């Protein structure tokens, strides 16, 4: 698992188990950039490159100094629900390349720990663990790094895709389940859980569990999630306790 997987055609391969001044201004794309075809790139790679070059959130992330456009997914969620702030303890699952850690720290979080299979450059004062979250030894280490129970659990985890839609979706749902198990076992009362998901079958049981354990459950599709992507986020607040 790792944070910020591809939306649509696959991005360059990753390890297993993430509106600034643009050509048309901050709110518009302006003229699109055409990508020259290359024999060294596949059709899907050309499409991915064109999408990156014409994505205003990619330009905005660069101008703001964020490591990835995914930062704006979390900022929109937090702008709406105010989950992050000084005194809030946060755990970020699938945190590579670190953009959600950056947002949390920017918003005043000082007690934060993240985990990913990929190596990540430091994001002080965050504690970063390079490990597989599915390893039973990982959750205790995260809690030790955090120094206590989390108030917010964020999950941007997703497995590498196999190309088989049903299999990929089931694997994603499985990771959400694991993240939710961790949240239910460790969140402080009143805490919050945010997890990336994709539209499709297999999520009804996850939603039922969320509604049993949290006072409010929402689906949020941030503007930074591409319109042609099935990506959305489950956001559950008001943890009822164990």
The helical percent reads: 25-40%
Query: Strand-and-helix sequence, N→C?
Result: EHHHEHEEHEEHEHEE
Q: Looking at CATH, which topology of the largest domain would you report? A: Rossmann fold
Q: For the record, what is the CATH homologous superfamily label of the largest domain? A: Vaccinia Virus protein VP39
Q: Tally the helices: what do you get?
A: 7
Mean pLDDT: 81
Q: What's the count of strands? A: 9
CATH class of the largest domain: Alpha Beta
- Major sheet: 7 strands, mixed
The domain tally reads: 2
Q: Alpha-carbon distance between the termini?
A: 27 Å
Quickly give the structural class: alpha/beta
- Spatially, the strands of the biggest sheet line up as 4-3-2-5-7-9-8
Query: Which CATH-level-2 architecture of the largest domain?
Result: 3-Layer(aba) Sandwich
Q: Report the sheet-strand fraction.
A: 15-25%
Poorly predicted regions are: 8-35, 45-50
Tertiary shape? globular
Question: Could you outline the blueprint of secondary structure elements for this entry?
Answer:
Layout: E1 2-3, H1 43-53, H2 56-64, H3 71-81, E2 89-93, H4 99-106, E3 111-116, E4 127-130, H5 138-146, E5 152-155, E6 157-158, H6 165-186, E7 192-198, H7 204-213, E8 214-220, E9 231-239
Parallel strand pairs: 2-3, 2-5, 3-4, 5-7
Antiparallel strand pairs: 1-6, 7-9, 8-9
Please characterize this protein's 3D structure:
It is a single chain. With about 240 residues, the protein is an alpha/beta fold. It folds into two domains: about 10-15 and about 20-65, no CATH class; about 70-240, Vaccinia Virus protein VP39 (Rossmann fold). It is about 35% helix and about 20% strand. It has seven helices and nine strands. The strands form two sheets. A seven-stranded mixed sheet has the order 4-3-2-5-7-9-8, with helices on both faces. The chain has a two-stranded antiparallel sheet with strand order 1-6. The radius of gyration is 18 Å and the shape is globular. It starts with a strand and ends with a strand.
